[in-house]
């Protein structure tokens, strides 16, 4: 794991976009495609907007990028809370991607648990039996959760499924998410988290007792492939 503390968020966003472009080039040279799983939220939105600018968009072979999502609220793709909708508006509609290579984590007319199985099949079809993403972009909530791996939830113990869905009672809604086993297989993981509200959880994740039931991001960080981009307000 490598931690970088930035003193300017614009630089943090730019370094994140640089990493995306660099990894895309390496992966495409290596095996002809770049497979990613993306998160929602304000930080990814800023990164995606930057990637859509000519400075970055012209560097990337978008028709060889395969887009999956880390997690999603079980809401329609037109809902303002949809991570897919945000990515579509900030990035996918602005660069020449193959829309058949973007796999939303939602589908009308199906139960979320059933779609989790279907989504895993889509991942296997693109990534193969090993299920190794080239790049996964994660965030961290104020409570130490990442993806839809929330404190105290049974999904933290999932070891077989790559994708699962469950009803998150505190939010009174279904969530669908990649699980710890497939996230930890990724060639490269970038965790972007910053601001005063994240300081306590990030300190516990990095320096506290190992307790992923309370701070689920601890399930992910102990690998060489993990980078954390943070700022001085949250950084340790």
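^ Assign residues to that structure.
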């Amino acid at each position: 794991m490598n931690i970088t503390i930035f003193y300017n968020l614009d630089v943090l966003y730019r370094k994140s976009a640089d990493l995306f472009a660099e990894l895309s080039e390496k992966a495409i040279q290596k095996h002809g495609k770049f497979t990613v799983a993306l998160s929602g939220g304000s930080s990814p939105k800023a990164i995606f907007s930057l990637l859509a600018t000519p400075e970055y968009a012209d560097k990337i072979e978008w028709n060889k990028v395969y887009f999956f999502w880390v997690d999603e609220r079980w809401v329609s793709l037109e809902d303002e809370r949809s991570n897919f909708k945000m990515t579509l508006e900030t990035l996918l509609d602005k660069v020449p991607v193959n829309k058949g290579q973007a796999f939303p984590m939602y589908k009308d007319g199906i139960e979320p648990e059933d779609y989790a199985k279907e989504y895993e099949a889509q991942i296997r079809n693109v990534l193969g039996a090993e299920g190794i993403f080239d790049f996964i972009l994660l965030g961290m909530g104020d409570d130490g959760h990442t993806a839809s791996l929330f404190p105290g939830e049974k999904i933290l113990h999932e070891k077989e499924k790559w994708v699962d869905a469950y009803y998150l009672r505190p939010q009174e809604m279904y969530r669908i998410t990649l699980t710890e086993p497939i996230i930890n297989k990724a060639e490269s993981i970038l965790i972007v988290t910053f601001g005063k509200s994240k300081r306590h959880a990030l300190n516990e994740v990095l320096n506290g007792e190992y307790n992923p039931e309370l701070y689920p991001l601890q399930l992910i960080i102990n690998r060489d492939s993990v980078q954390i981009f943070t700022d001085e307000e949250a950084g340790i």
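The chain has one domain: 2-219.
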